[in-house]
Amino acid sequence: MKTFFRDNGLSVVTLGLFLVFWAAQALTGFQVHNSDLEEHGRAALSFGQYLGTGHFWEATGENWESEFLQMAAFVLLTARLYQRGSAESNPLPDEELPPQPKPDGPVPGPVRRGGWAAQLYGHSLSLTLLTLFAVSFVMHLLGGTAEHNLEEALHGAPPISVLEFLGSADFWQQSFQNWQSEFLSVGAMVVLTIFLRERGSAESKEVEVPHRHTGK
């Protein structure tokens, strides 16, 4: 067990924290949603019923959407663009690269097969992240439409379609407020790793490395 955690501690802790905070979101959202229903004279929902509401899935999809967009964009941009001195950038073409060690272990199956499988595998990370972004975008859209229509019903207004909600300022304001913050955090990480260090972190250059050194 100790060896398993040593080898997988980063994923175990980050995914564990994700589940803890998602559960906390659900519990607090459940309380907020029922409070809103009771203020409008509606019956409160059970926790299981709440997990099927637009309120829960709008909040979930809205945040996942921005995270996967950020990561997909970062993967694609760092494959093509540079930032001199940043730990988050590939070395610049005019910088001398250190000798690269030979891969340790078996080559991935798609690479061994070659052809289209190797080509697809060579972009599998960005394609998967973009797919997760698209799924989260739809989750946000459908959950947001359901939540919007519930709010309208509480105030005696007619419902709108998914396409109408997609074209609304409300939907895009929810998206843009998250997208801008994600790219702010990425941009801050790119720039701050030029000048600042965190000893032992894979996201930082070595403490003794000059500011102009690009890459890890």
Descriptive overview:
This protein has eight helices and no strands. By secondary structure, the protein is an all-alpha fold. It has two domains: 12-51; 53-93 and 108-216, no CATH class. It is elongated and about 70 Å long. The protein starts with a helix and ends in a 21-residue tail after the last helix. The model has no long low-confidence stretch (mean pLDDT 91).
Please give a handful of descriptors for the protein shown.
0% strand; 66% helix; 216 residues; mainly alpha; 2 domains
Provide a compact summary of the structure.
By secondary structure, the protein is mostly helical. The protein contains 8 helices and no strands.
H/E topology pattern: HHHHHHHH
Query: What's the oligomerization state?
Result: single chain
Q: Given the C-alpha coordinates, what overall shape results? A: elongated
User: Beta-sheet strand percentage?
Assistant: under 5%
Number of strands: 0
Alpha-beta classification: mainly alpha
Radius of gyration: 23 Å
What is this structure's SSE topology?
Elements: H1 2-39, H2 47-50, H3 54-78, H4 109-113, H5 115-121, H6 124-154, H7 162-166, H8 169-195
Helix pairs in contact: 3-6, 3-8
